[in-house]
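pipeline: protein-struct stage 2 | run 1193 | MrfA-like Zn-binding domain-containing protein
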Amino acid sequence: MTTDTRFVYDPATAVDPLGDAEKEAEKATKYNRAKVGSGRPSSLLYTYGPGAIMDLPQFTIMPTGLDDWDRIWRRRDNPPEIRAPRLRDVVAKLLRSRDVRLRPHPNQAKKISFSTEGNDLGVPARVFPQWMRCTGCDMLGSLSQFAYTNTHPFRADLACFEHAKCTGRAGNRSRKPVRRTAVPARYLLACVDGHLDEFPYDEWVHHWSPCPNAEFPALKMVDRTAGKGASAVIGCESCGARRPMNEAQGEAGRAKLPGCRGRHPHLDAFEPNGCRNETRLMLVGASNLWFPATQSIIVMPESQQETTGDLAVRIRTVLGDRLAKYADDLDTLRDVLEGKAGSPPDLATIPDDKLAQAVAAALAPGESDEELDRWREDWDPVDLLVPEWQYLLKDPLGLRHEDETSGLTLSRRERDPSLRPQITRVLAVERLRKVNALVGFTRIDDMDRVGDLSRRLVPLTRAERPAWTVATEDRGEGVFLQFDESAVAEWEAKVKRDPVWLAHSEAHRRNFERRFSETAKVVDPDTRLRPPRYWLVHTFAHVLIREMAMKCGYSAASLSERLYAWPETDSRPAAAGLLICTTASDSDGTLGGLVQLSEPERLERVVSGALYRAQRCSSDPICAMRTPQDAEDFLHGAACHCCAMASETSCERANRFLDRRFLVDLPGSGLGFFGRVD
């Protein structure tokens, strides 16, 4: 990690799980501190990444920032990297770190279940929140007041904190002290800029004054109705003060909460200049506590420019300031790079002219902060999709074309004569590789609602310019469908004149102005409204996922969409198509059942069945006639969980921008792109 930092941080508090285990071993005590749980790479990227709160069987933890992960990876001489030059270039600009690399989570697969390789790797985490409540006597205290137990090396789920001398609740004091499990106290404070802090229970119960009877008062949390909001009551045994937590709820309760201290617990650091935001009461399991900001690509065959750029980054990273010394002597440059960690593995096969181009690119000055600011203002995530769309428009070379570098394997499929004429082209994506990178996260609001407010994106490291970020590499299969562009353009022009589209446009404007706060003042909401063709392709993808799930062997939650739907602009041609795929970090992503549905007869039956079912919903006629009226700001029309909405793992827009009326003709509407389906 680079040493420049932007936060107030005390190195003495660094997370070192294996170091803790070694200290305990010296004391001849049995602990398994290095392992308290497990998670799949996808969940550690999209649900429980750095700064999120992960539920374990007995307590909760927070994965720390990448600074602590870096110390874990240093246990390997050559940490693995995920190669995706096109994605890496975008991530480098978003993180303002020219040579940022993509690495997987610290992990090593075991050859057999009980082998020891990889035991020194893992995602470091700290217990959070660190206020806990005894389940036997309701004692509320900090982590140091409870005993930690985790002695079984293969049963991480048994790890727990316990109140060693619990005497039970009032009225049951005659019993001998026993060990009782402690659970996390479930209240937190958060602000819109992503800061998170413990709830100050001792100050709260005493109305921000010290306890008159004790310097360290004995607190209790009486909570008999778990799961019903802020229903607990905090009591002080030292002075008898009591205060319910529901006073901190809502707009009225927000005025009673303290201001934000600017704390980032995943970085173990504070904002150097503090934070002036108001805080909000949050629960540990709240769904808006952590939203990942990710970028992803389907890896396509690389262009010459991408290959040169990736080689330049590798050379610059390995040689650093010494690059200028060897730039004019390629033979010496090869000798110096040979065998170095991070060097190109195929260095000997790179021609001199290509190596010289890479060296020149490595020596070129990087973009200034002002240039990066302008790039971020103009950048659209759709730009990552354009190269994929352009490549998928090309016919594969042969019946089954495989690109060795990217792993992409494509096969052209003939159209069934009965297939809807609006679908002009079908590709079987027999193998694909998808790379996903994490660039930060937000709290309270999802990333797509605060994209113009860079200060609300919480960093993953204390370093100003991180050396790497975490990424996952998934493999899978899919089916690609291309729509007739002329038919889509004609249909889109018709829809834009219809009152239904005008109602959606006004609802989007209301939604934007109510939820985007500062952003809404300077951004035209219409620039964020997805065009009608996006609603069409999106809705079609959802009904297709539902139909495919019944025939391909995967669950609907395992299938995901990748949408190519944008009108023509000066910088990119129009697109109207979709890729339904399934990806996973293990063999589950390549079983072959989804690709088989691309065969002509099977695909025709799937499409016909999906469109036929889209005409009917168990919530009709209410669902079929749903149109946002004034004061309403929902971002969908004739769509609900009974007919078109999908799980959050499948949908890239959280079930927004859906309307069955744009797909098929419903009663009272003739806007369907596919018309009436018999």
